[in-house]
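step: validate -> pass
step: tokenize input -> pass
step: predict -> running
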Amino acid sequence: MSERPATEPTEPTELTDPSDVGGRLEAGSHVLALRVYWEDTDAAGIVYYANYLKFIERGRSDLLRHLGVDQAALHRETGVAFAVRRCEIDYLRPARLDDRLEVRSRLLDVRGASLTAEQVVWREQTELVRAIVRIGCIDPAGRPRRLPPLVRTALAATL
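step: predict -> pass
step: emit ->
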């Protein structure tokens, strides 16, 4: 048995650029790359339908982050949070283990207390899933609350 050379542990680096892990903005949309793992699939070896909701949630969260909306800080400082009010989703084609996917997210509408996003999951040039998601801004009691002015301005600038 050969010995492995001793190596010095490397210091973790701080990720200061959200594009390091959270996708990128491209032509008015946010693009998040994902890979399909075993945990994402069902007994037939295809992505379990509910997991697409996780994929689009990640894409939407990273879209907001790229637009300057830090949801954790927003909740901590103002008490408001975002909650899905409506999700209309069409499953067009399946994804399978090891597929490399892209979640493309873009804002369609920003209103007083809500926003609407279109999110599409792609595998190369094939559209797999299309969703329209309405997100409401809520207070700590779960009641609708107007978007904070800075958030509204940041989001509306992308339309």
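step: describe -> The domain at 24-156 is CATH 3.10.129.10 (Thiol Ester Dehydrase; Chain A).
step: cleanup -> pass
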